[in-house]
Amino acid sequence: MSTEYNPYSAPASVVSDRADDQQNLASKGRRFGTLVIDYVFFYLIIFAIGFIIGITHGSEGVAKFPWQLIGLVVLLSYYLFFEGLWQRTPGKFILGTMVVNGNGEKPSFGQILGRTLCRFIPFEPFSFFGREGWHDSISKTKVVMTRGG
Q1: 117 vs 81, 114, 139, CA distance in Å?
Q2: Staple 9 to which of 2, 3, 42, 104, CB 3.0 to 4.6 Å?
Q3: Mean pLDDT of all residues in 37-54
């Protein structure tokens, strides 16, 4: 029996079926929008951490904290957590995109880790002036649409 007409076959994933379709790739504008939204969330998290530190340690305690290290840990955790679990950050959820591997499936943890670490390459955000961003090409991932847009 052909799977096309088999009512018992598993449903096909829309992302997997269209992963190679260039029209399914998220546009540069949409990707920039997710970057902006994700950085708003990032700064809200940093603000919340600073607020808690300020309440517990006072203003002198806030000045003594290693904010660059805290920012690094928060940014790493943010992308690893959201993209590792759901293939989407809050920005990607809002704008209807997700990260997939070359086959249109969920990327491995190693790909998500590589993708996240690539974000710390100097001038990496400007790599999108080319065909794709370095954090996509190096980790062999891409960002696709999850809904029409």
Answers
A1: 13, 5, 10
A2: 3
A3: 94
